[in-house]
């Protein structure tokens, strides 16, 4: 009887070991594969795996990616799960100091990592402390490790955000290994005494950054000989003339928000290889120099018109000229999405400056009565259109439809008509 019990215990222990082996199969994977798995996690989650076993204790330090975010690192909890809004008695400056300690510690433990594939850093600043020196040290380490992708987002406390943008360290401007550079927030790229060196940079995002000197952006773009994607967003800038010249860029996204009382702004674009173009915001005086023969897709969302003659009788004419100047440059596009939100655009849709011979799909959003005229004139100038999508905007104003005889070729080429958000059958009568 005793022998039977002993055999039973041995069998259970054997089955338990076998079960544990099956359950922990992931720990038996090669180190390189485990590091690859951890690279998909934010750094705080990767660090949390160090408690699993001795095998995992320092495994996260070999991951060639860092993702550090003040929104996810808790100064009061060891697991770094952050919800600062529920942490009492801790001001923004104290949280920033804690975050600095975490970043330094992570970089120290990661010294074995030779090459840094990606470094994402989101840092919210507060108080009177100067953080330039910390940012410089962190980014200098990233540059020394030959970082390929840098995603930097800087946020200031409202009391200090506008007056003290952080200056990026010189090491980043000459980081020749960068392939992707994304800058968002209160950082300053004005470097009159330095030259940029980005021979490998293919993707560049500049969202809300400071460059008060007129030629800072031009100098930066000229240092990117293989740039393929550029995203640029600015609000209320004071420079009246801005030039974007990148002969190699294929994707260009621009978002502009202007002050109508300070808006004598001009934007010049030189991008002959452009394939995808997105514009969103207040329409300034935009001039596209090259004929865009390779243009495939364009999305245009005009919020309002930036014009010093806002109260002038010539405002409507001024707006029409700006729209025509923009759409004339887009005449080779194949897929077009158009949305006007400006009510004053009542009579600009009567004559288009060019024909859209290549246009096969049109997505058009309607908000006010004048937009029907714009749509109908687009249809008159798109002889090869195959797909038409007409949708009602969120700020749609009820109005009667404006009739204009559609071209004869529309019915022979159009394969699909989709209208969204309309209950009135008048739309079908208009486009039938």
Number of domains: 2
**Helix run count:** 11
Query: What is the count of β-strands?
Result: 18
Question: What value does the average pLDDT take?
Answer: 76
The assigned structural class equals alpha/beta
Query: Tell me about the biggest sheet?
Result: 13 strands, parallel
Uncertain parts: 78-89, 346-350
- As a percent range, the share of strand residues is 15-25%
Domain F-box: 23-73
Organism: Fagus sylvatica
Pfam families: F-box, LRR_At5g56370
Protein name: F-box domain-containing protein
Q: What can be said about this structure in brief?
A:
With 432 residues, this protein is of the alpha/beta class.
Structure description:
There is one protein chain. This protein is 26% helix and 24% strand. The chain is an alpha/beta fold and 432 residues long. The chain folds into two domains: 68-77 and 100-227; 246-395 and 407-431. The chain is globular, with a radius of gyration of 28 Å.
